[in-house]
């Protein structure tokens, strides 16, 4: 293969990159031996790549490194303060969540406390078929003849299960047997009729 | 896997390991080590920006922005690439974006095509000798070389800078500039030949001689 000067100039950059195929490279090598102009082009181009490829050709303004280091430090700080801002928000948010959870837990305890008043005790083990007298005015039910039936003009008779279903609560005197306060059974009141006695009285009638 | 002693005795391996270690630590959140990681390449980042923007203040500004962007995206860096190449590509992108923002190039792009279609023929055929690298110790020589490079049209200057100064390969240069490999090769050939002609003038006028350049001995 023989190459002329213009072909050499077109390929000189690829030649320096080592990207010419072996046949073309050999032809160019032969050409450089005989052509002073192309040898000059090759030598000059090599000088260009060698000189500009030198680290010393890259000059930075005075103080460049210091300013860059400072800028990075600022960037890192602002990133961290960005996190601090987050964490600054996180603390009160976490506190609010904790307070909320605390209130909820407290409420679950305080809203359903053990009964402290026997007047609100719904009673337990009351025979469902037991006849009771309900006082509409006081929302309580009693065994018949109980002294604590108030507003007797509003009383009705029904089964205990019906009275409980309608929201009546047992009388703390006559139904004491069936009541408990704070989980502790309450003793029978000597003054009050027991449910059994009241039942017998009712049956006797 | 090289032996630990082999790594210690081989600065290149040791440097690579140190760089990888720094990258891993910065990626894990030790951002205060980031300057140590970029410091060996800071000059190249600046040079990339300067070649595109041709303004020292803008180049420094873009170099800083590029480095901060690299920090913000350090988790996206994958070990398959060279860190320096990744960093320089970010700087090139930032510089190109700034240039686009600052001026429209519609007229320029018509000229770009016409220039690339015609072949560049060398003009100077003086007998060259190898220019000793010691010549670069002289600030005035570096200045002349910088001026010659700055006189090139941006499309030749950018390709030349990335390939011959930043040592990116042809493929990486094409990717960084968003142009084809064929365009990189064409522009690179032209840039090298144009610089050669500019330097040939200087060669004749004694830029690279051991004596300092005299007053009135300006090549252009």
Written account of the structure:
Chain A folds into three domains: 53 residues; 36 residues; 87 residues, no CATH class. Helices cover 52% and strands 9% of the residues of chain A. In chain A, the strands form two sheets. Chain A has a four-stranded mixed beta sheet. A two-stranded antiparallel ribbon of chain A has the order 5-6. In chain A, helix 1 packs parallel to helix 3 and helix 2 crosses helix 3. The longest helix of chain A is centred in the middle third of the chain and has 47 residues. Chain A starts with a helix and ends with a helix. With 220 residues, chain B is mainly α. Chain B folds into two domains: 99 residues, RNA polymerase sigma factor, region 2, helix turn helix motif (Rna Polymerase Sigma Factor, Chain: A), CATH 1.10.1740; 81 residues, Arc Repressor Mutant, subunit A, CATH 1.10.10.10. Classes of the chains: A alpha+beta (205), B mainly alpha (220). Chains A and B meet through helix 1, helix 3 and helix 4 of A and helix 3, helix 4, helix 5, helix 8 and helix 9 of B.
Structure summarized in a few sentences:
The complex is a heterodimer of chains A (205) and B (220). With 205 residues, chain A is of the alpha+beta class. Chain A has helices at residues 5-17, 22-34, 36-52, 64-110, 160-165, 195-204, and strands at 131-135, 140-142, 155-159, 169-170, 180-181, 184-185.
Furnish the topology, listing elements before pairings.
The complex is a heterodimer of chains A (205) and B (220).
Chain A (H helix, E strand, L loop, with lengths): L4 H13 L4 H13 L1 H17 L11 H47 L20 E5 L4 E3 L12 E5 H6 L3 E2 L9 E2 L2 E2 L9 H10 L1
Parallel strand pairs in A: 2-4
Antiparallel strand pairs in A: 1-2, 1-3, 5-6
Helix pairs in contact in A: 1-3, 2-3
Chain B lengths: L3 H6 L1 H17 L6 H5 L3 H12 L2 H17 L10 H20 L3 H12 L21 H12 L3 H12 L4 H8 L3 H24 L16
Distance between the termini of chain B: 55 Å
**What would you give as the CATH superfamily of the largest domain in chain B?**
RNA polymerase sigma factor, region 2, helix turn helix motif
Report the radius of gyration of chain B as a whole number of Å.
20 Å
Number of domains of chain B: 2
- The total count of strands of chain B amounts to 0
Helix content of chain B: 55-70%
What's the tally of helices of chain B?
A: 11
């Amino acid at each position: 293969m023989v190459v002329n000067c213009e072909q050499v100039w077109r390929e000189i950059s690829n030649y320096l990159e080592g990207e010419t195929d072996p046949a073309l490279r050999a032809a160019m090598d032969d050409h450089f031996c005989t052509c002073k102009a192309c040898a000059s082009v090759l030598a000059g181009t090599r000088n260009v790549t060698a000189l500009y490829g030198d680290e010393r050709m890259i000059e930075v303004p005075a103080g460049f490194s210091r300013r860059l280091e400072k800028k990075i430090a600022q960037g890192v700080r602002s990133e961290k303060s960005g996190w601090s801002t987050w964490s600054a928000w996180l603390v009160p948010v976490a506190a609010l969540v904790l307070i909320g959870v605390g209130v909820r837990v407290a409420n679950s305890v305080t809203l359903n406390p053990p009964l402290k008043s026997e007047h609100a005790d719904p009673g337990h083990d009351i025979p469902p078929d037991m006849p009771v007298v309900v006082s509409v005015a006081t929302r309580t039910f009693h065994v018949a003849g109980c002294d604590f039936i108030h507003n007797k003009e509003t009383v009705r008779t029904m089964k205990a299960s019906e009275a409980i279903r309608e929201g009546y609560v047992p009388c703390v005197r006559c139904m004491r047997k069936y009541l408990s306060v704070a989980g502790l059974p309450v003793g029978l009141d000597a003054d009050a009729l027991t449910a059994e006695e009241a039942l017998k009285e009712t049956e006797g009638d | 896997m090289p032996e630990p002693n082999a790594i210690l005795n081989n600065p290149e391996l040791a440097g690579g390991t140190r760089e990888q270690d720094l990258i891993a630590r910065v990626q894990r959140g030790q951002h205060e080590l980031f300057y140590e990681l970029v410091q060996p390449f800071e000059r190249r980042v600046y040079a990339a920006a300067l070649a595109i923007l041709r303004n020292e203040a803008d180049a420094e500004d873009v170099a800083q922005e590029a480095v901060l962007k690299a920090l913000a995206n350090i988790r996206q860096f994958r070990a398959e690439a060279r860190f320096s190449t990744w960093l320089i590509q970010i700087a090139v992108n930032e510089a190109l974006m700034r240039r686009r923002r600052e001026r429209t190039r519609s007229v320029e792009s018509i000229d770009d095509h016409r220039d690339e279609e015609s072949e560049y023929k060398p003009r100077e055929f003086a007998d060259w000798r190898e220019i000793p690298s010691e010549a670069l110790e002289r600030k005035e020589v570096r200045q002349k070389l910088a001026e010659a490079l700055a006189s090139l049209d941006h499309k030749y200057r950018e390709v030349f800078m990335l390939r011959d100064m930043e040592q990116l390969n042809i493929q990486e240069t094409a990717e960084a500039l968003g142009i084809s490999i064929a365009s990189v090769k064409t522009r690179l050939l032209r840039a090298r030949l144009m610089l050669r002609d500019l330097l040939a003038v200087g060669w004749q006028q004694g830029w690279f001689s051991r004596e300092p350049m005299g007053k009135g001995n300006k090549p252009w």
